[in-house]
Amino acid sequence: MKTKSIMMAGLAGAALGGCIQVKAPDKPIEINLNVKVQQEVVVKLQRDAQDLIQNNPELFPQ
Fold first, then answer.
1. What's the rounded Cα separation, in Å, for the pair 7 and 1?
2. How far is residue 46's CA from residue 42's CA, in Å, rounded to a whole number?
3. 55: buried, middle or exposed (CB in 10 Å: 19+, 13-18, 0-12)?
4. To pair with 46 at 20 to 30 A between CA atoms, which of 7, 19, 22, 34?
5. Taxonomically, which superkingdom (predicted)?
6. 12 — phi, psi (to 5°)?
7. CA 28 from centre of chain
8. Using an 8 Å Cβ cutoff, are 60 and 53 in contact?
9. Is 18 within 8 Å of 25 (Cβ atoms)?
10. pTM of the shown model
11. Cα–Cα distance between 39 and 55 in angstroms, integer?
12. How many angstroms separate the CA atoms of 38 and 22, rounded?
């Protein structure tokens, strides 16, 4: 019974000996964040144009 336990422990140790090793990369990880801010610019331009029209109705007759 003891020899079976010792043999099983030896097999388990041999099986765990082939585990995967994780190594940190040599180069730093680069993350590109290409974010569009088009919506914010358009909203600001729309508000500016609306203020211009409301403040100067003679420039834009209807």
1. 10
2. 6
3. exposed
4. 34
5. Bacteria
6. -65, -40
7. 15
8. yes
9. no
10. 0.31
11. 24
12. 41
Q: Which residue has the tokens 């729309």?
A: 46
Mean pLDDT by 10 residues, the chain (62 residues): 73 64 85 74 79 84 72
Q: How many residues are present in the chain?
A: 62
Cα Rg for the chain, rounded, in angstroms? Answer: 35
- Residue type at 50? Q
Distance CA(41)–CA(3), nearest Å, equals 77
